[in-house]
Amino acid sequence: MGKGGRKNEFLRFLCSVIGDKMVAQDFQVDLNKALVFQVGHLGESYQEWVHQPIVCTEGPRFFENEFWEFLTRTVWWAVPTIWLPVVCYFISKSVRMGHTFPEIVVMVLFGILVWTLLEYMLHRFLFHIETKTYWWNTIHYLLHGCHHKHPMDGLRLVFPPTATAILCFPFYNLVKLMSSPSVAPALFGGGLLGYVMYDVTHYYLHHGQPSSKVPKDLKKYHLNHHFRIQDKGFGITSSLWDRVFGTLPQTKAAKKTR
Predict the structure, then answer these.
(1) pTM of the model
(2) Backbone angles phi, psi at 60, to 5 degrees
(3) How far apart (Å, rounded) are the C-alpha atoms in residues 232 and 252?
(4) Distances (CA, A) of 5 to 80, 192, 198, 209
(5) Phi, psi of 243 (to 5 degrees)
(6) What is the pLDDT along the chain (258 residues), one digit of tens a residue?
């Protein structure tokens, strides 16, 4: 076995030992078995458990069933590959209905802006809802808890395409209710483009190694949400809405000056 292989084996062993010890001391969850139907039994202890991250690139098993397990794993590049053609299709619909290029740009940009607000609201009020019953713990773990427990799991960082496709139908119908028939496609396309940008950015913040200031700051900002202040910093693609709604986390430097 090469040097890289031995390193990966050691990391897997280390993750297993650390995880098993932590669970054995605090909660009765077996990390070597499918987790989804275990976490609900934690009850009120679930919130404490799920916010104690295990930093391993190899994620846990969710389901015993191979089909359901397959649906929970998504490579990051599947998101732009699948959804960018859909974005182009919807934007082109508004173009064919007679809108000018400047009008299309405004619609798409507005759709992206709306997505950033939706991204913030979902993250703050749904993904970080506090649960304590069996089924709510289970649902929360599937939605977002798994990401906080295993933040470096590269196959569960982006939203599964099947779930995205299902959610597209009600969201598109909502957009059609709130805008004209010719505007709705470009608005929805912009929102979908915002989602693609969000998922790709999210993956990069966890696994990329930025060299310039803006992505470096954004990575630091997001990892701060995972490992230091988990009830602040809900924006992923930007800190805009955290600033607007007062959930911008304090920096360490700011705390020292107080």
Answers:
(1) 0.85
(2) -80, 170
(3) 14
(4) 31, 39, 32, 22
(5) -70, -40
(6) 554 455 455 445 445 444 443 443 455 889 899 999 999 999 999 999 999 999 887 889 999 999 999 999 999 999 999 999 999 999 999 999 999 999 999 999 999 999 999 999 999 999 999 999 999 999 999 999 999 999 999 999 999 999 999 999 999 999 999 999 999 999 999 999 999 999 999 999 999 999 999 999 999 999 999 999 999 999 999 999 999 999 999 866 555 554
